[in-house]
Design goal:
Shape: globular
Helix content: 40-55%
Largest sheet: 8 strands, parallel
Strand content: 5-15%
Distance between the termini: 33 Å
Length: 772
């Protein structure tokens, strides 16, 4: 295989959630379709052996093998042959931060640590606090007699479906007596967050943190991936969750040295205005571009109206800064209490309770996910000032721990950034995003809900800067981690053009179908409007997860049956109350065309802007997915193949429910990028002149010009494009979506966008015509 010609450098990717239900052979069957679509590389979910039945692959259990449930090494070889046959390459997703330990017997390293304790050759792999005694495993029921269900079977300890090893020479006696002799202790699942003795991924006890800063651990966990890269079988690597690592910069330097030719992107979530550190990578996985692109289609003028509506519904003003402080503080002191205890122990000169409180306040006030000592002193200074403002009673403790945190060689300073990243993720992404429902289209990974919309000038500044610094970073508008699909956000953006109308409608619906949590009720109705029509069972599943994540009226740890019953009753009324359902469906249908316009616009902008564009599986057609696992539903690729064939036969689709027009935009843009990369080497805003100029977003990539419509309802109310024009180069240009040819000079947008709300123009040549 290494002698097969290499595909071109990564130009565009297509993400496939390879999983047991859609394995490597099924993925190989997509190769021809993906080549026809216009991408250069398949971008896969993690491929290494994962916990049995894993639906995502981020719980790797054995770095030495391809997941047998995906087809194993033979399946990977068949996938590579299929990709190479059509000129495609492969980008893989790797997980350096943690491994799956939910099924200990599936993870040889973890099993050996449980069996041998500190004497295990793998003990150094894991970030375990051995000084606190036995390794705690939170798997028991929360009852006093849970250990009565422990049994010895085939020389192992068994607790229901859970299996655990027995150390040599400790197998005599009852199951409880044997248990008491082990290097581990089984405890109630409720004790895990407060007492756990190993670092984990966020608050997930089934994912144990790895010490990849150790060269031996790095080598053992990366050998297979790096062998693929060295053999030319992998062209790109996506690094999951680098913020969990002790030393992300050192890790990435080692990875770059080991794979110097690989396209390397990191899942680094940047806060608004934050810059990616100067790491040896090609860029991020694109969440910051998602925020910028989606924000283009939100009307900033609506912020006051939505703030007033939120205040009226909730009964009080909501400060995003205060809300996120509170949710982050709760994450630090409850979900991540064990991690906080371990940190506080590293400051023995401070009274333990004061050290815990000071570190928790600093984490809650930290303005970004984490710092990277010795860099990030400014963020620490801001956190210290804010923590001191909120808790002046902690001044002494705050000063003491901050002095330690300023020293990059201090163990506390090395561990604290791992903590703040988890606090931000759990407190904001997984809690506050579900609590603040002012305008949920903005509640997205990488976004800032307090930043209401992105004016075109701001977008152009952001994109021009990104083109200079990170021209090969990934761009995206949907991932497996986004809170809602791109087209749901696009439709919800329309609400910003109808703030008063929305306020009246949702107020009436809340009165007729009340819920004892008005903030969450507002999120529910926005979600329904954004995704309608949506199957009843999908909406039920979503709202239950979302309400438990919000942790206000119910939670994962303590579900409230009464509230959840009321919540599901409201969902059922949406479907069973004829009048309510008719109103909901009618309003969703009314705003759908404008939502389609936004969806086409944001997709074109994302695909054509500087960077390497990714298309998440299935989103080349309309997609009304919500948060995972909803966004991992099966994709009907047969329909997409058929529609693409019809497009290639000359069909120009209408903008309607089948989504073929989006497939047209995706395929023609990707094909042009692949056929004529020389047309995508620069970035220059192209202003529109005339009464409707602010409604056009246009830029020249060095020959290819993308044009999109923003705020389409306001545009229509103002009388349309009228005499608004766009200045095109003097040579003849072809719109790849309609096939129409323009002679250059001042071109009326009313003509250019008469068929579709978007256009992609390129100099008229045979290669351009072939791409269309």
């Amino acid at each position: 295989m290494a002698t097969t010609p290499r595909p071109p450098r990564v130009g565009a990717t297509y993400r496939v959630q390879v999983r047991p239900g859609f394995d490597l052979d099924a993925t190989a069957g997509l190769a021809g379709y993906l080549a026809d679509l216009g991408v250069t590389h398949l971008y896969s979910a993690p491929l290494l052996a994962a916990s049995p039945g894993s639906a995502h692959g981020y719980d790797v259990v054995d770095h030495r093998a391809v997941n047998p449930e995906l087809g194993g090494e033979a399946g990977r070889a068949r996938l590579l042959r299929a990709l190479r046959a059509v000129g495609l390459g492969l980008v893989v997703d790797i997980v350096p931060n943690h491994v799956g330990v939910a099924v200990p017997a599936a993870n040889p390293a973890w099993w050996d640590v449980l069996r041998r304790g500190r004497a295990s050759a793998y003990a150094r792999w894991f970030d375990i606090d051995w000084d606190r005694g036995r390794l705690l495993l939170p798997v028991l029921a929360d009852t006093a007699d849970a250990l009565d269900d422990l049994k010895i079977v085939d020389g192992e300890l068994r607790y229901h479906e859970h299996r655990f090893p027995v150390a040599d020479g400790t197998a005599e006696g009852t199951a409880r007596e044997v248990h008491d002799r082990q290097h581990y202790e089984l405890i109630s699942w409720r004790r895990g967050d407060a007492e756990l003795t190993y670092r984990r991924f966020f608050a997930v006890s089934d994912l144990a943190g790895l010490r990849v800063e150790d060269p031996e651990v790095f080598a053992a966990t990366h050998d297979l991936i790096l062998a693929w890269a060295a053999a030319g079988e992998v062209d790109g690597i996506r690094v999951d969750h680098p913020d969990g690592l002790r030393d992300p910069a050192g890790y990435l330097a080692r990875l770059r040295d080991a794979a110097p030719q690989a396209w390397l992107v990191v899942e680094k979530i940047l806060e608004y205005g934050e810059e990616l550190p100067d790491w040896p990578v090609d860029g991020t996985t694109g969440y910051e571009t998602l925020a910028a692109v989606s924000g283009l289609f939100v009307d900033p003028d609506a912020e006051g109206s939505f703030t007033a509506l939120d205040t009226r519904l909730v009964g009080r003003p909501t400060s995003w800064a205060n809300l996120t402080h509170d949710t982050k503080l709760a994450a630090a002191t409850r979900l991540l209490a064990a991690e906080l205890t371990r940190l506080a122990a590293l400051a023995p000169d401070v009274e333990p309770a004061a050290a815990r409180a000071a570190l928790a306040e600093l984490a809650a006030a930290f303005p970004v996910y984490r710092g990277y000592p010795p860099h990030g002193a400014r963020h620490l200074a801001l956190a210290r000032a804010e923590a001191g403002r909120r808790r002046p009673d902690l001044t002494g403790a705050l000063d003491a721990v901050t002095r330690r945190l300023r020293d990059p060689a201090d163990e506390l300073a090395r561990r604290f950034p791992q903590f703040t990243g988890a606090v931000m993720a759990k407190g904001v992404e997984d809690t506050a995003f579900y609590r603040w429902s002012r305008f949920v289209a903005l509640n997205e990974v990488g976004g800032s809900p307090a930043h209401f919309g992105v004016p075109p000038a701001e977008f152009h500044r952001f994109t021009a800067a990104r083109h200079v610094r990170w021209p090969a970073g990934m761009t995206t508008v949907s991932t497996h981690d986004t809170k809602r699909g791109e087209d749901v956000r696009a439709r919800l953006a329309v609400l910003s053009e109808l703030p008063d109308r929305w306020a009246g409608l949702v107020t009436g619906w809340l009165d007729r179908a009340p819920l004892p949590d008005s903030a969450f009720a507002h999120l529910l109705w926005q979600t329904a409007v954004g995704a309608w029509p949506i199957e009843r069972e999908r909406l039920h599943a979503y709202v239950e997860k979302a309400a438990r994540e919000a942790s206000v009226s119910t939670s994962w740890a303590d579900p409230d049956p009464a509230f959840e019953g009321a919540l599901h009753a409201v969902v059922d009324r949406m479907y069973d109350d004829p009048d309510l359902r008719a109103e909901l469906a009618a309003f969703a249908a009314e705003i759908t065309p404008a939502g389609w316009s936004n969806a086409l616009g944001q997709k074109l902008v994302q695909l054509a802007m500087p960077g390497v564009p990714d298309t998440y599986q299935g989103t080349e057609q309309w997609d009304n997915s919500l948060v995972d696992p909803d966004n991992r539903r099966p994709v009907d690729f047969a329909v997409r193949r058929e529609l693409l064939a019809r497009l290639d036969a000359g069909w120009r689709p209408s903008v309607d429910a089948d989504g073929a027009v989006k497939l047209l935009v995706v395929s023609r843009t990707l094909r042009l990028r692949r056929a004529r990369p020389d047309l995508f080497t620069g970035y220059r805003p192209v202003p529109a002149h005339g009464p409707a100029g602010p409604h056009a977003v246009a830029f020249d990539r060095g020959g290819a010009i993308a044009v999109a419509t923003r705020l389409p309802l306001r545009l229509a109310r103002a009388g349309g494009w009228r005499d608004t024009v766009l200045s095109l180069p003097v040579h003849t240009m072809t719109d790849l979506f309609t096939g129409r040819v323009y002679s250059g000079g001042e071109t009326r947008l009313a003509d250019l966008l008469a068929t579709y709300s978007v256009a992609l123009l390129a100099p008229t040549t045979e290669s351009v015509e072939a791409a269309s």
